[in-house]
Amino acid sequence: MTSSTISSVTATIDHTTMTTPMAMSSTNTAMAMSTSTDGSMSMSSMSFHTSIFDFLFSKGWTPSSRGQYAGTCIFLIVLAVIYRMTHVLKHRTERYFNARARQFARNIATAHLQMDQNAGSFEKSAGEVTIGPERPLQFRNVRPWRVSMDIPLSLIQLVLSGVSYLLMLAVMTFNVGYFLSVLGGIFLGELLFGRFTSNIEGH
Questions:
Q1: How far apart are the C-alpha atoms of 20 and 17, rounded to whole Å?
Q2: Who contacts 132 (Cβ-Cβ below 8 Å, separation ≥6)?
Q3: Spatial contact of 123 and 133, defined as CB atoms under 8 Å apart
Q4: What is the pLDDT, as a whole number, of residue 39?
Q5: Which of 131, 134, 147, 181 could pair covalently with 76 via S-S, beta carbons 3.0-4.6 A apart?
Q6: Low-confidence residues of the chain, pLDDT below 50?
Q7: DSSP calls for 27-78
Q8: Residue 195 class from Cβ within 10 Å (0-12 exposed, 13-18 middle, 19+ buried)?
């Protein structure tokens, strides 16, 4: 083997050795750029947008036309109205059960007063029996736990929480149409049922 041949082989090896790291570096750079691009695209979706092809709750619910997108928005409006209606239902049911418990307590207090006029725990005024104020760590005036009252309230709260989480997931898509539909439904629900939470008794 001549010296010229040896020099040529050495030069080829040196060139290959230098080229391989450069090629690997270029590949890694391209992969990093691709990852960065994917990351930026992922981050850009975390802002409000107006696409009509965002899925709702699952991939199976993905609008493919403007009509399906409008139907999805209408569904969110109805769901938000149901949320407000359930909130009002819970409020009125709880108020009704509390009124029943107070009436029951008054009946017991009246019976005790009839048996013992010197009972100091109750006060009779204008034909109505009321229970005196309680201390911060006392729970004397709390409604007692009853299956007929607390289970219905718990079921209503379960539905209320489930609907509210579904609305939250819809808003977290950052879709402007979905977001405005939820707000519109809450407004409409408050417009229809908000007055039922007001206590106007005695006015």
A1: 6
A2: 121, 122, 123
A3: no
A4: 36
A5: 181
A6: 6, 9, 13, 15-44, 119, 121-122, 124-127, 129, 201-203
A7: HHHHHHHHHHHHHHHHHHTTS-B--S---BSBTT----SHHHHHHHHHHHHH
A8: exposed
